[in-house]
TrEMBL record:
Broad class of the protein's primary localization: membrane
UniProt-listed Pfam families: Zip
Designated name of the protein: Metal transporter, ZIP family
Keywords: Membrane, Transmembrane, Transmembrane helix
Membrane topology: Multi-pass membrane protein
Annotated organism of origin: Thermofilum adornatum 1505
Amino-acid biosynthesis listed as a keyword: no
UniProt GO cellular component terms: membrane
Protein location: Membrane
Taxonomic lineage of the native organism: Archaea, Thermoproteota, Thermoprotei, Thermofilales, Thermofilaceae
PANTHER family xrefs: OS05G0316100 PROTEIN (PTHR11040:SF70), ZINC/IRON TRANSPORTER (PTHR11040)
InterPro entries found in the cross-reference section: ZIP (IPR003689)
Gene Ontology terms, MF aspect: zinc ion transmembrane transporter activity
Length: 176
């Protein structure tokens, strides 16, 4: 749950833009940042839990970390293009490259941080896995499955309901 809460707070207070849902974050951010940077911030927010998942997986087992890294990297390619193409159209190839690199570095930084932290303090590994899993679950529900929000105006209710259902299923799975 801590991962869900952490990414929810970042999602709420860091200005960013989604292709499907538009602007999210404080009103001042929309005035200060260009649309391309808002899209880049959305990808950076999305990449933080992915990087942590790679790092925690690597701390658990290097082969698992490599497999997790490959799986996440495969889906990062279209995601990077989604940021780089609009950036290149508005600011040229150099700007697009810088934005794509910055969004990718957030994932790399979290992967290294997670691997070092949870290898050094292996007793915290289950907490790190839960945190990364919760963060990834939030990103999956909130960012990657936008269709579930079409009929409901309160995305918090939908996300909370989905995560509550997920927790209930985990409980039932472990209880029986």
């Amino acid at each position: 749950m801590a991962g869900v809460v952490a990414i929810r707070l970042i999602d709420r207070f860091v200005p960013h833009e989604h292709l499907y849902a538009g602007y999210e974050g404080p009103a001042i951010g929309k005035k200060l940042l260009k649309k391309v940077w808002l899209l880049a911030l959305a990808v950076i927010i999305h990449n933080l839990p992915e990087g942590l998942a790679i790092g925690v997986s690597t701390a658990y087992s290097i082969p698992v970390g490599i497999a997790t890294g490959i799986a996440i990297s495969i889906q990062d390619v279209p995601e990077g293009l989604a940021v780089a193409l609009p950036a290149s159209a508005t600011g040229g190839v150099r700007k697009a490259t810088v934005i794509a690199i910055l969004s990718g570095l957030s994932e790399t930084l979290m992967a290294v941080l997670g691997a070092v932290l949870f290898t050094t303090f292996s007793i915290l590994l289950p907490i790190g896995m839960g945190f990364a899993g919760g963060a990834m679950l939030y990103v999956t529900v909130k960012e990657l499955v936008p269709e579930i929000y079409r009929e409901e105006h309160s995305e918090l209710k939908v996300t909370a309901g989905f995560i509550t259902g997920f927790l209930l299923m985990l409980f039932l799975d472990s209880a029986f």
